[in-house]
Design brief:
about 325 residues; alpha/beta; six-stranded mixed β-sheet; transferase; kinase; PfkB family kinase; kinase activity
């Protein structure tokens, strides 16, 4: 059995990666790191090399969040994860006095109770709740995805713009069972139940189910059960480790939304961003060819164009451009 110690990761790292891959002005992106006394500076240096604004908050007397990810075989498929220390979680007050407080989009990994507490607090801290309303993208904390928590999930979803569990978290939340074999119809059924119960008729909310190599399912008030394929097909030898692909997808989605305001095009950005995260263990390598940025030697924009062209071919030359109405008080950077 081989091991890879001290690999940078976590939902925040990968979500930041997804946004950074498509960012024209990296310093406009921010990453809040909650660190223990033993936090390795090399991790912060990675984000610094990306040009991302980093805010590091120390929890004195605590050890940094670490986890053990164990794969059951050499395919990087079945896996088990457990925290070996922490997790140390961010709270809205960590943003007081920081530019990040006034960010125009947030990715949050949280339980529904934390969403109910933190989103109103973030809005309150932002000019007393006045001003622009940020885009809130919520990724649920996996252990909170249980049927008995559905009522509180219903309340929490009304505070966010995008709610995105993966397909395993989805079936665990709605039906209390783990999906052993992937079933697209089962995913659609669960997603329909969840969307109809969690988002109010007047809410411009979007539910995105991330399903790894099976692609993603998007449900919104203007878009029912639309599947988009992952960039790499199942079994591709380019995929070395799928860890972080779903988090990176959400960061890419946020970048796409910033530039296009199109749900479909944002999802495309998400899949392309995720493709870079899964080509290696850990984070991809950023390099430059003149003014062109390359991730693992490839241009993200060129890969996005290729993915779009592929979809156009599969759909007979037409990709539905579903633009979601932006709230009048929303402004992206």
């Amino acid at each position: 059995m081989s091991t890879s110690p001290s690999i940078s990761g976590g939902s925040g790292s990968f979500a930041t990666l997804g946004q950074r891959i498509f960012s024209r002005v990296p310093s406009n992106l921010g990453c809040l790191i909650i660190a223990g006394d033993d936090f390795p500076e090399v991790v912060k240096d990675v984000f610094g090399a990306w040009g991302v604004s980093v805010v590091l908050k120390k929890r004195v007397g605590k050890t940094s969040t670490r986890g053990l990810l164990e794969y059951e075989d050499g395919t990087f498929g079945p896996k088990m994860f457990k925290y070996t220390s922490g997790p140390l979680k961010a709270v809205p007050t960590d943003l007081i006095g920081e530019q990040l407080l006034h960010a125009e989009a947030f990715h949050i990994l949280a339980t529904p109770q934390e969403i109910l507490e933190q989103v109103p607090e973030i809005l309150r801290l932002r000019q007393g709740g006045q001003g622009n309303h940020p885009l809130i993208v919520w990724e649920p904390f996996p252990s909170s995805c249980k049927p008995e928590n559905l009522p509180i999930f219903h309340k929490a979803c009304r505070l966010v713009d995008v709610f995105s569990p993966n397909h395993i978290e989805l079936t665990a939340l709605v039906w209390g069972k783990t999906m052993i074999k992937f079933d697209a119809e089962e995913v659609e059924s669960c997603a329909g139940i969840l969307f109809n119960n969690c988002f109010s008729p007047n809410q411009q909310g979007t539910l995105i189910i991330r399903a790894g190599e099976h692609g993603s399912l998007t449900v919104s008030s203007i878009m029912q059960n639309e599947w988009h394929p992952s960039y790499y097909a199942s079994g591709s030898d380019r995929v070395k480790d799928p860890t972080g692909g779903g988090n990176t997808f959400l960061g890419g989605y946020m970048a796409g939304w910033h530039s296009t305001r199109s749900i479909v095009k944002s999802v495309m950005h998400g899949h392309v961003a995720a493709s870079f995260a899964i080509e290696q263990v850990g984070l991809p390598v950023l390099s430059h060819d003149g003014e062109r940025e390359l991730w693992n030697g490839c241009s993200a924009n060129e890969r996005l164009s290729e993915y779009e062209s592929r979809l156009l071919g599969e759909l007979g030359g037409a990709v539905t451009d579903c633009n979601q109405t932006v709230r009048s008080d929303t402004k992206m950077p």
